[in-house]
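pinning this so it doesn't scroll away 📌
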Amino acid sequence: MRSVQALAVAVLSVLIISDVSRAAEPKPGGIFRIYHRDSPGSASIHEGATYSLNVPFMPIFNNLVIFDQHIAQNSASTIRPELAESWAWSGDNKTLTFKLRQGVKWHDGKPFTSADVKCTFDMLMGKAQQKFRQNPRKSWYDQVVDISTNGDSEVSFNLKRPQPSLLALLASGYTPVYPCHVSPAEMRTHPIGTGPFKFVEFKANESIKLTRNPDYFKKGRPHLDGIEFTIIPNRSTAILAFVAGKFDMAFPTEVTIPLVKDVKSQAPNAICEIAPTNVSTNIIVNSSSPPFDNVDIRRAMAMALDRKAFISIMFEGQGDIGGTMLPPPNGLWGMPKEMLEQIPGYGPDIEKNREEARKLMQKAGYGPDKHLQIKVSTRNIAVYRDPAIILIDQIKSIYIDAELDVVDTAQWFPKIARKDYSLGLNLTGNAVDEPDQSFYENYACGSERNYTNYCNKEIEKLFDQQSEETNVEKRRKLVWDIDKKLQEDVARPIIFHSRMGSCWQPYVKGITIMTNSSYNGYRYEDVWLDK
């Protein structure tokens, strides 16, 4: 009898193990359907400054290296080879050399070589004959003297000085390699990559379609036949369509915490994750023209902020207060709380802060009988509009009467890059949790993405000092000091760091939501549909 029972148990165990292995085995095929929050200005990742580009177009490309798409927190230890097979620093840490993967083809069949890497980064550094229309991350490569090739399968980045962060910058979703033989203009409308999916079409304000790359160099990838993005700017309409099963996934990190609750109540089987995005909501001021050339007015506005009220209204308390760098524990470089609270305007006594702010406004010539009239410009999507409305309400307390000025996505970044605004509510996404990316891109004198015209040569020297430091703990303390100074200078007042939800249907497998950058996790080559 026992032997019969033992045999039955053994057979049952084999069946269970077999079922589990079958369930875990990715199924090929299917179209992955996602709604998109808005219509990107173009299809060229290198010319954009919004993850509205990365989410649909990152699957078309590859980088030299990439953050592991299955590990939520990006760090130096999670960088993996992609178009590069390996890399090595020279003894003086001033040359970074990559051995390239051989046999890789562009989607039009032409071979990928070291010349493509050189072309891409020469354009990013502004050294090529062909130019990008916009180049928001040019400052990332300020320390690169040149790119040299050694045959078709080796390329080196030669630096002015050591810059340990360069590898992390190259791993960002914003750092694809472009083909030499395709012009920047063509890449805006019909991008060619080496990635797991090929571009099919982009109909502005309607849809973006990608199809499986059958010649992808990673055998067996991708699992999906294609990806289709339907552009639905109205968030409520989009969420209703997801709940009704018309989409496999909501636009990543775009579902607010109250909306996550709505999704779960109407579609209890949906999987939703709430995570930090490394996107700060901040105030941008055109500091080179009146009235915000007056530092007292800028400082008053920063001191009027009730950051906890923003987080309470928008995230039911689930947001983070910090400086430029993402706060710990998800952020690797953010200031400790006790240091943050020493900065004017960050202390817990809001009324005391606002009384100080009113004194500064009176010093600048404003008061109960003379209010400053101003427009608050912002991008015409909910994650920008909602905090802009709260900001307008809060600055009333310091004699500023503001009205909302909404700007379409395609016009927003060009508008603020040319400083065609006075006061703005902006979201700054950090493509990497890395001080070099944040400091040089957003605060360096002359950087295209330095929308406020802030320029402090003394602090810029400190940028270089922390950038060269190879001891992580020493560098972290330098970064904290710089971040504190930037907040005290009112360079770009940080209101909060958001936490947002991502939701997908239970049959979608292979999704990892990044917890310290919402810009790097959209290759989709391991996603599959279990239905």
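📌 and the second one:
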Amino acid sequence: MSFKTPHKGKKTENTFINNGLTEFKIELEYLKNDAELFSEDKISVEKLRETIKKTRNSFKEIEFFVAYHYPEFTKTHLNAAPLFHIEVAGTSAYTLPPEGLQVLDELIYSDEAKEEKEEIKTITNFLYNSYANFYLSALKNGLSKGTNKTLPLRIELIRIYSLGVTGFDTPGSLNISEETSHALTGMKNYISDDEYFRNFKTEKALHLLEKSVQYLEKNTDFETFDRIEFYKNYIQPLYEELGSWDGNSDDLKNFSGWNVSNKDFFKADFFDPYFYTLLKKSEDSDELKKLGEKIFYDTNFSANGEMSCASCHLPENAYTDLQPKSVSNAEGKTVLRNSPSLYNAVFAKRFFYDMRAFYLEQQAEHVIYNKEEFNTDYEKIVQKLNNDKDYKAAFSKLFKDKKITKQNFSKALSSFVASLYSFESDFDRFMRNEKEISEDAKKGFNLFMGKANCATCHFAPHFSGLVPPFFNENESEVLGITKKPINNLPLELDSDPGRINSTVKKENSWIYENSFKTMTVRNIALTKPYFHNGAFNTLEEVIEFYNEGGGEGLGLPMKNQTLPADKLNLSEVEKKQLITFLNTLTDISKAKK
């Protein structure tokens, strides 16, 4: 695709996107100029805030296209989260500061904006230069494009709901309604202007987009914004309608865990489990899952013949063991950390609390070789399988090579674990209009997505650190977890170093000290005790910890807490409503009876 002027009277994707890119560049120039003036005390912070608002709104109108076709550039330069990150170049890894619009939103709307004026100017200049280079490259080389033009629009709807209306994208201004309105307006203009969409009946989508913008104009308060109503009446109908236009042509097959044929965020087919495993869909079957389940419960594979996967992952407890830290194979000892649920565990690109494994199969491998757990190896496991006539017959039937190998063993186990998803909770069914939940649960969800700040780390719809909208990476967070619940004085930080001490050497950076993977809160009512150290026994204790702003908010020394240290100021009623919502996320329908 190039930036050539289209024929007179013919509107194309080039026209709309090129105009949007140019308008955004102009707004960045205004921002750059005002950041300079602000650093010289020549304009007020209110004037600068108005400028950053216009700049962000301009970006939002083309975000669906730019963030879809240039995701890496967008998330690292244009609109990065305000957190330090690792960038790998060859064999070296560098710790880099955050940059882009999201960082500026947080700085400019903070109470310390005047003290940060030089930092604001520096980041603004950096943003302008990064985008100017991108813009020139686009002019010269043309824009990327895919075969399915509705995918960027549907991905934008996921982005809006999981990152936009939660405040993740606007950590300082919380300007969710206005920005979402501009994002939807950009989509509406794109559909209206591009000749490609004349092949489809666009009236319904355009009507929904218009109604959505009207709703947003009337509902502008961050804390009272009804994210249930917004999803059911606007986001979901739009998402389903757009999904009917281009069929299931999938430009994202090898890039995203999202299933393009899905019609509802809260249905079980939202994710593609085979994106996250080495097991391919064509290889899977009910018979392979049954074989994997048999392996899961078999103690014969551990060195002492007493430990199976189910020793730490009991189905009746949502595949956890209810222990602070799971027992090891040595009497009286435990492993390093708490045992997380296996429900929905497949939907991840990193495994373990310290994120040291990159595939579900690799996660199992760590357990097999761990001296405190199975304390064995694949050679011994394969030998045991070959000595068992039933296993031998099952593998021979299910695999083309008819052999028992490390790979085939792993695929069988993965098949079973990948089947453990739970999107039939009361809340899922409520969002699909299949049942009702209490008013307190509804209020709790809106707190989760808004004031309580939960969904900025536990992203919908998985409610974990699986990052939307492409769901191809996991986040870890530095929370400042204490050794005991916060009513146990004196308070002391847990001594586990977390991700900084993992076997992934390029991540041995100070930004990952005390950093742990953000697990899903689905089935959280059944998976106590909580956090990596299992030190918190109730959801009330967990919420109180967050309400106080984590370790830093409690006054403990933290180098790089990623959780905001500000108090949430949740009332006792709001805390109970939050727990009521969390209890609606229970679904263990796939547990072994």
